[in-house]
Amino acid sequence: MQLNGQKFAWESAATTGVVYSICTIFVALFPAFSTKLMGWLFHLLNFEILGRGLNVTFGGFIAGLGQTVLYTYIGAWLFSWLFNRAVKS
Question: Which residue ranges does UniProt annotate as crossing the membrane (predicted)?
Answer without folding.
Answer: 12-33, 53-83
